[in-house]
Amino acid sequence: MSEPNPRREDSLSEALDKADTQAEPGLAEELEQELARQEPQALAPQGDDRWRDAVREIFAGSPAVAVGALLLAIVVGSIMIAFTDSGVQEAAQYFFARPTDTFAALGDAIGGAYSALFQGAVYNFRADSFARGIRPLTETLNYATPLIAAGLGVAVAFRAGLFNIGGQGQMLVSATAAGWVGFGVTGLPFPLHLLLALVAGLAAGALWAGIAGFLKARTGAHEVIVTIMLNYIAFYLLSYLLATPGLLQAPGSANPKTPPMQESAILPPLVGERYNLHWGFVLALLAVAACWWLMNRSSTGFAFRTVGENPRAARVAGIDVPRTTVTSMLVAGALVGLAGVTQVLGTVTTGFSSDIDAGIGFDAITVALLGGSSPVGVLWAGLLFGAFKAGGSAMQAAEGIPIEIVLVVQSLIVLFIAAPPLVRAIFRLPQPGSKPGARKKVSA
Amino acid sequence: MTAQAVDPAPGAPAPDAPVEHRTVETVSSKAPVILAVLTGLLALLLVAAHHPGDVRFALGSSHDFFEIPVIVVPGPVVAWGGVVVMAALTAVAFVLTSALRRHVPAWVTVPFAVVGLVAFLAWAGAGSPRDLSITGLISGAIALSIPIVYGALGGVIGERAGVVNIAIEAQLLLAAFTSALVGSITRSPWAGLVAAMLAGVLVALVLGVFAITYRVNQVIVGVVLNVLVIGITSFLYSQLLVPNAQALNTTPRFPRVGIPLLERIPVIGPAVFNQTVVVYLMFVVTAAVWFGLYRTRWGLRVRAVGEHPKAADTVGIKVNATRYRALLMAGAVAGIGGAFYTVVSIGQFGREMTAGAGFIALAAVIFGKWDPLRAAFAGLLFGFASNLQSILSVVGAPVPSQFMLMLPYVITLLAVAGLVGRSRGPAASGVAYEKE
């Protein structure tokens, strides 16, 4: 108490040397973090000219960067499209004789691709009625449903300082539980059966992620290892259940696939029988709202964020850190579980196999990152990626452009949005709060 | 005031005595519990799935110095004998931790693992007419661990310099792709290997530009790079390699090169000293990374930059340049691992063929506590576990194959929870550094 501050910093590093990691497993980690926190954070220098700052703010702000990132990604996507298009390749062979041909072919290919993407994701202009034309939009929402739910799961864990790579395993386990109730339990009326399957799925996802949280809290096992291992364990568990008659495998079949869900457990269509969109989307929206409330308005969410920002401070403030770790993983698992449930009870109701997760567990990480780990951000990111999924398959069908382009464009968007200085450097946008000329340092 | 408010742990200004006291109190009983659980599981397995008959352990091969005959022993007897030894070792561990307050030493855990493995193999191979080849088990394990070990070494270098590398998977995949392409065009596996290293460096460079220069969150860049590389390689695979499979996607492979004399040592000779050059390189690189990190000026700087960049900067080390160099070197190392898939293993590229090995490598980095030797050992362990499954399916083990496939991951989980415990990375890993 009587010691001055500089002395304290010394004692910190000294204590770090002395600290016996075996004796007090948390102590050394905390001291390290304390040291790391003494690093200077990246702080932009403050400008004093208010008016100019305001103008710069607008051009330096994130909407400009987001648009720039989108443009860059589209340019790269266009190059890839041009590469695949046979018309462009032919015209390019006599480029120097008639360059206009090449440019016309380029325009055709790229325009056609992006128009197919749009028509596959939002509205199909070639359809003869509004009801048919709007169908792509419902597909987008359908694809977005599990992405939003799982993205929320990853985002909540992120905010609590945990990296949840276990989306795949959590989805598989929740799909197994929900699916089992969905086809195995008989005699329950419609909403009850659905509700039971939903709860079973959420609980299974929560428990599976909870294992990681529990092990992290009790033994300090790193959640990245544990969730990766749980992914594989869940996959093989489901494979076993699917390959064993009398368990999940459909009776009388040799395929590793379950029987179809019963009518009483299926999420009903949201906007009519002719669309695939089901009530799962509403559940995802409710989850967004619930998450927003949880993270921004509840003491539990406050504990999550505090532990995520600074576990040591959280501990000092009286927050039970191990318990918060477990709780945050339970919540994250339930949210990812919702994605699994909507898959088996809404999207693939004719029985599922071990690829039911469809890579959503990993996509969810990207969605959470793009959404900045905030519930509303995840909603928009999920919708965008859902549109890319829906539009990408339409683009592949209509124009023969490989759907992998969508993966590239998606990841570039996230990458560029995450790196505002790079986008600013490319488009010569000003730095936030910087004076003219300061930009060169970063773009160099 | 600060000292009291921020410091509930008594370590900082306190004298040694209370710390000593804590050491005594907090020796955890996790390790013996895990050993007990493993012993119990094995016993349960033996009871639940009784499996009579003899087991044939093949230890030798035809051109050893001296031939070891196939050892034929009754499976259940050996298995139960193993359980008894394991139980005894567990008891020793309990006594050590609870009565003597000591940590479980390696002379308990290592024999425990070996005996447990032999007991398990005796149970699994009992009654099978086929030989259970120990040499094949080890040799296959080493081959399968190549990408994981290289990936983990790359990860260790990067993290020691303060850059978290989630993009190991991307490095492996792009390296596998480029080595297939270049190897096919040049008809030389060596060219493929060099191309693979360059591909690893390329991914590392992108990671570096975003994470070091533009200070983007390193986890974000890593995750996104994985997706990006899956997209690019799958795209080029379908557009370029599939239509021209013969010209662009059939690379020659490295042959197995036996080391004279050494390869005739029984059991380990054929397993360790009759491998491809990439395997020998793996041992060299592992040793070199260890030496480099702990015994050279370069390594000291890398570790300083990863632990406390500000201090390193103060004494004149260029933080970001050091990080770039380490990261690029790590990329080259990880790239060699990616080459395994094409110029060592099957000679052609396939869509997403690394199948999550990069994430296993990431797990090996953490499992090995950011130490090159331990991380490489963890990688070998993963390779061993995945090969165990294929050996057991040859002898026809009486367990559903899915559980065999699951086994390595379950054991890793138990090991991480019980034996490794809290793992702590380099302090500044994941934090971008900006000079003031």
Automatic annotation (TrEMBL), chain A:
Name the membrane topology term. Multi-pass membrane protein
Q: Does the keyword GTP-binding apply?
A: no
Q: Which GO terms describe its cellular component?
A: plasma membrane
Recall the GO molecular function terms of this protein's record.
transmembrane transporter activity
The biased composition feature labelled Basic and acidic residues covers: 1-21
Localization terms from the record: Cell membrane
Q: Which Pfam families match?
A: BPD_transp_2
Which InterPro entries does UniProt cross-reference here? ABC_transp_permease
Could you tell me the keywords of this UniProt record?
A: Cell membrane, Membrane, Transmembrane, Transmembrane helix
Region (Disordered), start-end ranges: 1-48
Q: Spell out where the chain crosses the membrane.
A: 58-83, 103-123, 143-162, 194-215, 224-243, 277-295, 329-352, 364-388, 400-419
Q: What is this protein called?
A: ABC transporter permease
Source species of the chain:
Xylanimonas oleitrophica
Source species taxonomy? Bacteria, Bacillati, Actinomycetota, Actinomycetes, Micrococcales
From TrEMBL, chain B:
Looking at the UniProt entry, the stretches that span the membrane are 31-51, 71-97, 104-126, 132-156, 163-184, 190-212, 219-237, 272-293, 326-347, 353-370, 377-397, 403-421
Region annotation (Disordered) ranges: 1-21
**Membrane-protein topology:** Multi-pass membrane protein
Under Gene Ontology molecular function, one entry of this record is: transmembrane transporter activity
Matches recorded under Pfam families: BPD_transp_2 (PF02653)
Query: Which keywords annotate this record?
Result: Cell membrane, Membrane, Transmembrane, Transmembrane helix
Does Cell membrane count among this protein's keywords? yes
Q: Which superkingdom, per the lineage? A: Bacteria
Chief site of localization: membrane
Location in the cell reads: Cell membrane
GO CC aspect terms: plasma membrane
Full protein name: ABC transporter permease
Q: Which source organism?
A: Xylanimonas oleitrophica
